[in-house]
Amino acid sequence: MLTILVALFAAVATAFIEPQHECRNRGEGCALDCSPESKKGLQHECWAYLNMTGYIKDWVAENGTEAGIQDVGFAQAYLSWSGKNGRTCNIVASNTCDAPETDNAAYQNEQQFYTLWNIFSVQQFYAQYSTALSRSQPLASTKLGQIVDHVAPPAEHTVGYSEWFNMLMMGVVWAGLAVVPITFGGAGAVVEAQLIGPLIVNGVWTVSRTPPFTDIRAKYTQTAETRFQTLANIDGDLADMVSTYLKQVSDEVKAIQNNVECFIALCGPGGFSARVTLDLNEQSLALYKSLELFTLAEALTASGVIIAKSTGINPMQVAKDTGEIKCPGFGPAGNCYNWWYDKDNGNTYAFHDTHKLDRDFTDLINWIWDQKLVDNMADIFANEACAGKKIDMTLEANTTPKTICAMNTKNCEYAYKPGDQPDWLHPNHKQFTNCDNDRDYLADCAWFGQQVVLPLSYLGPYLQHDSYCRVRG
């Protein structure tokens, strides 16, 4: 799905849509029907097709002052100019901003209808987003607490409050990609959602670089940077964090609806020109997915846990060849006990405690899968592109859940290769290709004998009968 979304980002960004006035000037039939009564419904292409950016800027120049834009902001001024004085669309609230009617006779032109629709659509999206965050916060708090309990990091470990806060803000990416077009059904809804989601996210990216929206976000971020959050208390403190974030969302919506440049930046890609909604029942908890993965990564890192990668090795084959591990098959999560095998890249991954080399993470892996923290365990283990990466919380164009890099636990590749034979006289003391050795790696198990210490995650050539132990004696 993520691959499809990335491709769609590129396709949407480069697609050319001829403005309506050009085809009409040639006296030819136009490709799109953007009228309120169009049988095809609302269409995201209509923003570019109707040259909405030009229309709105012209309206501000010609009518903005008289409509009171300096006093009430763009959205409310345009609503009043259009005879919609009873609507309030620059606040995050329910039942204050109704959808415009789909009646051709009610509007001077199609641009007026799409301007009103975008004003409504923006307010609806953020109102639903805020409701979803509030509604699912208690369940999210419980989930975060369970993650910490299962990993059991040091109780005193703290994380900068801004990192938690900024990761919470990434929920808007999940929200953008979770929109559901309600004028389509079946496969058509899926295809349309795959198009509209990236458009909404790209609009959010664009407005995040447009003043005064940028000033609001900077103010909240600077305040957050002065605080620290204890990892062990994240479940109890999430409610306060969400409350603060919702105040930020409210301020941002005012900036978007009041400032015409912010409004155009958000709506320009076309995502808010469609008839979409958030499925609150299905998607509420998804808004916290980045925060869940970030919490897991922080808990693992605080515990000294990395991801150990055995390139090109299948644990079932190791079990068959050596008899030193048990791997009868792969469970629903794709793991056999402590080892998770990626059938797509042929590599095996395992959680690896650098302080306790015999620690078994089978229960944690199965719990992660049972709790549906991810739909594919590759998002946990095959994280090479994000491993050890300092998370840059600046929203980028074409951001997807995968590129957020919430799961940034260090990923260390074992330095062995398939087919290697052990050289006991000259052992390979380099444990990983890209990380430092564990303190006890290949250390003597006791002051006498020929056994060396091998971590539970190890699947290399030294894994031979009576040649190793898991813990130094």
Observed structural traits:
alpha+beta, 2 domains, five-stranded mixed beta sheet, 18 helices, disordered N terminus, signal
Concise structural overview:
Keywords: Signal. By secondary structure, the chain is of the alpha+beta class.
Describe the structure.
Keywords: Signal. Residues 1-15 form the signal peptide. This protein is an alpha+beta fold and 473 residues long. It has two domains: 2-281, no CATH class; 289-413, no CATH class. Helix content is 45%, strand content 8%. The chain has 18 helices and eleven strands. Strands 6-7-8-5-9 form a five-stranded mixed beta sheet. The protein is elongated, with a radius of gyration of 27 Å. Mean pLDDT is 86; it is low at 1-16 and 182-189.
How are the SSEs placed, and which strands pair?
Blueprint: H1 2-14, H2 20-25, H3 46-49, H4 52-67, H5 69-72, H6 74-81, H7 110-151, E1 158-160, H8 161-169, H9 171-177, E2 179-181, H10 187-207, H11 213-224, E3 228-230, H12 234-258, H13 260-267, E4 276-278, H14 280-283, H15 289-302, E5 305-310, H16 315-322, E6 335-336, E7 339-342, E8 347-353, H17 362-370, H18 378-381, E9 411-413, E10 452-453, E11 468-469
Helix pairs in contact: 1-10, 4-6, 7-12, 7-15, 8-11, 9-10, 10-13, 11-12, 12-13
